[in-house]
């Protein structure tokens, strides 16, 4: 049975994080993983290329050599294990899992902030501070999303919870209350 990308990402990311804790290299490995993510942004098909059956083993290994040469120690070994198990196309899922564990350890809440119009950086920081306080984290890192359908207000999703302060939600609640009468 072939595992889906999310399951693979969770397993490998967890294993890497546990090894990073053991080696006391959590931050260094995290920085290397951010670099790898940037490489994948510049070359989005890298994972597919290194998994492509149309390339010979030597061709893929030459590409992998260039890719892995910028990393040392645990990260270099990790990249080669991922390559050997033909999972390079799942690498971003692994990085996501490591980052989720890293943020949890550092008490950083991740999520989104949805508004009808773009908000200023200052307003975003103000909302992030409130969300961190509400959920009991040191900080919150919320990705802004613009969705005109919410009409106005804010929807915050973080730590698997939703704070819905949108005008659309309030109007729907009012509509439901009025329809009961």
TrEMBL record:
Keyword RNA-binding: no
Principal subcellular localisation of the protein: membrane
Keyword Heme set for record: no
Pfam families on file: OSCP
Protein topology in the membrane: Peripheral membrane protein
Gene3D superfamilies: N-terminal domain of the delta subunit of the F1F0-ATP synthase
InterPro entries for this protein: ATP_synth_OSCP/delta_N_sf, ATPase_OSCP/dsu
Family label: Belongs to the ATPase delta chain family.
HAMAP family on file: ATP_synth_delta_bact
Protein name according to UniProt: ATP synthase subunit delta
Organism: Candidatus Enterococcus moelleringii
Gene: atpH
């Amino acid at each position: 049975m072939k595992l889906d990308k999310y399951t693979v990402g969770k397993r490998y990311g967890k294993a890497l994080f546990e090894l990073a804790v053991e080696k006391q290299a959590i931050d260094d490995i995290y920085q290397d993983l951010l670099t790898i993510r940037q490489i994948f942004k510049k070359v989005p098909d890298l994972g597919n290329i290194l998994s492509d059956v149309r390339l010979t083993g030597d061709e893929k290994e030459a590409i992998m050599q260039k890719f892995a040469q910028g990393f040392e120690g645990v990260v270099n070994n990790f990249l080669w294990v991922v390559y050997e198990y033909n999972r390079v196309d799942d690498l971003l899922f692994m990085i996501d899992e490591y980052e989720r564990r890293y943020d949890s350890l550092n008490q950083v809440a991740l999520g989104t902030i949805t508004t009808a119009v773009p908000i200023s950086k200052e307003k975003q920081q103000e909302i992030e501070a409130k969300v961190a306080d509400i959920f009991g984290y040191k900080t919150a890192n919320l990705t802004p999303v613009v969705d005109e359908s919410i009409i106005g207000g804010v929807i915050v999703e973080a730590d698997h919870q939703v704070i819905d302060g949108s005008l659309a939600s309030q109007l729907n609640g009012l509509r439901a209350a009025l329809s009961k009468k």
